[in-house]
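Risk mitigation, structural track. In case the binding assays with nicotinamide-adenine-dinucleotide fail to produce interpretable data, a predicted complex structure has been prepared as a fallback.
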Amino acid sequence: MKPLLINGAWVTTSHATGNINPSDVSDVIDEYAQAGRSEAQAAIAAAADACEMWSRSGLQQRHDILQCAGQEILARKDELGNLLAREEGKILSEAIAEVTRAGRIFLFYAGETLRLRGEVIASVRPGVGVEVTREPVGVVGIIAPWNFPIAIPAWKIAPALCYGNTVVFKPAELVPGCAWALADILHRSGVPAGVFNLVTGPGAVVGQTMLEDARIDAITFTGSQATGDRVAAASLPHQRKIQLEMGGKNPLVILDDADLEIAVQCAVDGAFFSTGQRCTASSRLIVTERVHDRFVGALAERVSALRVGHALDASSDIGPVVDAAQLAQDLDHIAVARAQGGVLRAGGEVVERETNGYFLQPALVTETHPDMRINREEVFGPVASVVRVRDYDEALAVANDTEFGLCAGICTTSLKYSSDFKKKAQVGMVMVNLPTAGVDYHVPFGGSKRSSYGSREQGSYAAEFFTRVKTAYTSP
Ligand code: NAD
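Fallback model:
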């Protein structure tokens, strides 16, 4: 059994669950301890006790720990990538790229520890000095989803530690493997007891305990809107900081003047790579009418040729869907889209491979309307819809006609339209002639509307969430 990490000690539990490979359900990767309320509370207590010590720790110590962890992650990228591909199902090259990203994030925040700074501002009063400094928030609860099992934990844990906070980390139930490997690396990198705690277990128990505990000063959450709403409601009575990253229904607009090859590549990558299980996936393809048929024809050909298979098979372009429940959700969305008048132009069927996994041929549904369910709700699978529009103005209106606001893309050779789209797309991230998914690790990440709440993640902007600002006035 892979144990919990509480107060610097590995802790086993009476109950453990198997980590199942979605490419081959007969492959049980390992058994992972399942924390209950008491273990979650012990982890929170340890993090609270370690707060004072860690907030006063030297920056060199924090730097060295983060750097050590980042270097080990990078050195073991192939092995950790293999584990990630096995437990989550993205293909090996994507999994290794994700691990690499996680390693670089740790190195980035190792550097950020040495760039902590405040401000000295002139006072309006003669002789008075004003200093603005940043202080740690305290105990940070981290609740993560399954679709980026190492990158999302990395971009929450590394800044939390960098800015002097202690951590209670609860990974998603489906992906305890990468979380455990990360905890092991941090532990051996020299994180003091209590500063970083890992509690694997069910959201309804471990996560809920975290939400209810007043000793948690901030929660950074990535996952579904429903759980995000719970985090928000439970946090208000404690007046704790929250950062919520939730779903997306990201539009990719293709205009008549687009380079067709680039547009098709953006759509294939953005909609289907990582099995479409990305919050930034291009799930709505909004295409102007003069290019519509050529674009759909070329895209359908590419989508049909995508090879779905075992995540570790070098010939696979796309891995399996993460589990049976997600597969059922994907199929339901496809069925409802067809019932509402959509045309299944490519894929959409469950395919058999040598191993027993959740293999779904990527689905392209055309002739859809903005008000159909497939264009309103997040599918979170390899399913994309096409909406035909007259012109740029209608494309922009349809792109913004959603409660989500994470990312939006446009494929065009027009400076006028790309500039206008960058200004008017109601999202946190805009892509021009690039897939909506695939972002840098050193710049802000996040959305608007119902996709995100709170300050941005990643880059130096993460300091907004992981610190509190103090203003000090001094008179000689
Ligand atoms: P989820 O909401 O089911 O679970 C997310 C986390 O919350 C898990 O760790 C889960 O155990 C925990 N949780 C569940 N119930 C809880 C409760 N009552 N109290 C506290 N914690 C609880 O989401 P998921 O299925 O793991 O992830 C998929 C979702 O994540 C999608 O909607 C996707 O768009 C979103 N996502 C968003 C981003 C982003 O940055 N915007 C990135 C990746 C994924």
